[in-house]
Design brief:
It is a single chain. With 182 residues, this protein is mostly helical. It has a single domain, classed as Arp2/3 complex 21 kDa subunit ARPC3 (Orthogonal Bundle). 75% of the residues lie in helices and 0% in strands. It has 7 helices and no strands. Helix 2 runs parallel beside helix 4. It is globular, with a radius of gyration of 16 Å. It starts with a helix and ends with a helix. The model has no long low-confidence stretch (mean pLDDT 91).
Amino acid sequence: MNDKSTWEFGTRQVVYGAIGAALYGVLSWASNFVPLPAAGNVTFRPAVAVLIFFGVAYGPWVGFLAGVIGNTLGDALSGWGFYWNWSLGNGLMGLVAGLAMAAISDFRAQKDIIKAVGWGIAGVAVGMLFASLTEMFVGGIDINTALVGYFTPAFIGNTVVTAILVPILMIAFAAVASRRGR
């Protein structure tokens, strides 16, 4: 795919972003009761795979919208309120993962799955580092708590989810698409 289609922003991206946000928000809510050990307010979120997948499949803007809106929705459904820095961090996760769209042509090819997982993990690093470091200003925590108590468990948990579930989603998506003739 070329740069124009990667960065295109129109009705299609808004619709896919809304679908991704709804899925990410509801699935996040479903697992928000599972805190990560030794983490401040960080939970285990298998739904991150949906966010990463939507970015990879439909581009950075879709990933960004799915992350920002989906995290906001998941937190609201969980009764936690609105944390702009964590929602923006989730948006950055999806946006960076969406940069893989330009490098992927076959969702079943091992090299493309590896690219998607790599970009997804890069997105996890950027998004969770942003959210964790801004928590120093928003929540008044120190750098050690930000890095050890927030970033490290969020990064590890989301990386494991990305490495395991994103390939499954990609292969399943490719199978459905091929049956539909796309």
